[in-house]
Amino acid sequence: MQWTNLSEQTVYENRWFKVNLADVALPDGRHLDHFLIRMRPVAVATAVNEANEVLMLWRHRFITDSWGWELAAGVVEDGEDVAAAAAREMEEETGWRPGPLQHLLTVEPSNGLTDARHHLYWSQEATYTGHPEDDFESSRREWIPLKLVPDMIARGEVPAANMAAGLLMLHHLRLG
C-alpha cells in the first residue's frame, strides 16, 4: 500500500527548512493534501573514552520547555561532507575534537512529517581544544559513564529519539 506524491508546492522556506504542501494519491485513488517539511541533513558526533564514558551535553530545548542530555549536532552545510560536519559540530559545541569518526547509524526521527535524516558518528578518542565556541548551546558538557545510559533514557533524561537511539547503539557496541 504505497502512497504517491504527485506534486509539491513550497509554502514557506528559510535556510534551514521548507514547508511544502503535497498532493498525495492514496492506494484507493483518493487524494490527500499533506504538509511536509524538507530539511537539510543533520550530523551528530560524540566520543567514547577508554573509561567507557560518552561525551554529552546538558541543554534546554525551548520548543518543548524541557532539559535533557544530547550529543553535539547541527545541520550539514551545502557541499559539506557529513562526517566533517559531525566533527565540526562536536568541536564547536563541546570544545573536544574527535579522532577518526565511525558511522554509528542514520535515523529518520519523524518520517511522517519530515524528510530529515540524522547521521550519527562516534570516535574512540577526542582531544580537548578549549572552551567551546558555541557554549550557548548547552549548560554543561560532561563525560557520562556509558553503563548509565539505558537507565537515563528510561527516566526520560535523554528525550530526543535520535540521541537515545545512538546512545543505545553505542552502549551495545561498547558494553554488549
Describe this structure in words.
The chain is of the alpha+beta class and 176 residues long. The protein has three helices and twelve strands; from the N terminus they run βββββββαβββββαα. It has helices at 82-94, 149-154, 161-175; strands at 4-13, 17-25, 31-39, 42-47, 53-61, 66-70, 72-75, 96-98, 102-107, 118-123, 126-128, 140-145. Strands 7-4-10-9 form a four-stranded mixed beta sheet. Strands 1-2-3 form a three-stranded antiparallel beta sheet, with no helix packed on it. A three-stranded antiparallel beta sheet has the order 6-5-12, with no helix packed on it. Strand 2 and strand 3 form a beta hairpin. The radius of gyration is 18 Å and the shape is elongated. The termini are far apart. Pfam families: NUDIX.
Main attributes of the structure:
176 residues; alpha+beta; three-stranded antiparallel sheet; elongated; NUDIX domain-containing protein; NUDIX_hydrolase_dom; NUDIX_hydrolase_CS
Provide mean pLDDT, rounded.
96
Q: How many helices?
A: 3
Give the number of DSSP strands.
12
Helix-strand sequence? EEEEEEEHEEEEEHH
Rg over C-alpha atoms, rounded to the nearest angstrom: 18 Å
Spatial strand sequence of the major β-sheet: 7-4-10-9
Shape: elongated
Strand content: 35-45%
Point out poorly predicted stretches. none
Protein name: NUDIX domain-containing protein
Keywords: Hydrolase
InterPro entries: NUDIX_hydrolase-like_dom_sf, NUDIX_hydrolase_CS, NUDIX_hydrolase_dom
Pfam family, one: NUDIX
